[in-house]
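Exercise 7. Predict the structure of Potassium transporter Trk from Demequina litorisediminis.
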Amino acid sequence: MERLRGVKAALGEIFSRSALRSPARLALGSFALVILLFAGLLSLPFATADGHRAPFIDALFTATSAVCVTGLTTVDTGTYWSGWGLAIIATGIKVGGLGIMTLASLIGLAVSRRLGLTQRLLAAGEARASGLGDLRSLLRTVLVVSFSVEIAIALILIPRFLTLDYGWGRSIGYSVFYGVSAFNNAGFSPDPVGLYPYSHDFWILVPLGLGVLVGALGYPVYLNLVRNWRRPRTWSLHTRLTLVMVGALMVISAVLLAIFEWSNPATLGAHSTADTIGNIFFQSINQRSGGFASFDIGDAREQTWLLEDVLMFIGGGSGSTAGGIRVTTVAVLLLAIMAEARGRRDMEAFGKRVGTEVLRGAVAVTMIGIAIIVVGTTVFMAQTDIPLDRSLYEVISAYATCGLTTGITSDLPDDAKITLIVMMYVGRVGSMTIAAALALNKQRRVIRYPSERPLIG
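Solution. The predicted structure, encoded as tokens:
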């Protein structure tokens, strides 16, 4: 017993020192280890439907996609993996959605009934808590909201799958899988060929769409709404910007998608008016991060691909299960443009002033994201003969952890799969690490150089 306590204390000391010296490195390493763990599990024979070992590159790709809540796959999820394989994927999605650092803090809280400063700092960075005092409430909100939404989706879907003669076991398993995949914005489907057969079935599409929408708002928004749901005037600026941007992007994407695809017989043109409108709004939710598709994206028009490139790059709310540079980042950039156009000194929204340090962070995150996508697309095109439009779409989908695809993923060579694995990994932990690095890298200087304004534009 004494030896076990000594080992535990030593591991705790190592963890604390690593966190204090380089929290970003610890986060990167934790995600990498979890991905390798799930890749190893998916490589076992019982994880596949035919009982043979999956090629490690496909197991690694699927594990990365699950833990990074992306949804891109090199094999058909519904036919290639066994029931155990689907359970492993769902668990990976749940772990990735909660966040490794948040999950570690939850375990620590359950065991010791208290959180150390290091754990609180790490979890606050992962979940985007507004302060250390909010962390305990935030973690409680994380658990309540995530499990409540996932269970609600499953309970709604079970009767529907029973009416489709799926049987009790398959109906419950698929419903739980869809609940986890929807809320965590993963886009994985246990059905062969995905959601295409359900493009007319709003009993399935509506709960999945709502689950994706709620999951993309972000845990800080949930906490703020739970505390002040009766007093909208007291909502934080972050909550208001997130809700406004999500709503605006949904409407804009729905209108543009209708313009681009309404007459396309390969996507929405063959549906009735009611089905077309329903599918448009379902896709308008999933285009930014959800990854579900009720029609074949490969048959969509190129202007739709360009629209979704932009939407995937924007992503969802900060501290959510979604990816991208986040809607509040774009909101800050728009506020800066508006302030400059009006000749105002400060960026203002909802009676609040946004500091210039926030703008610098938004510009840094955006430009770094663009640079990563440019480099990733260049490497991807060098590894394949795929044209720019499809290559860019696939790389952005991986980096933004969205999971939509034009149908090229399964035919990629191994080196191109590795490129997408790196993009998914960087997209999931990179933005978090970059944001943490920017926050921790603040320096106060006594001496400041004289200012001079260069010409812009």
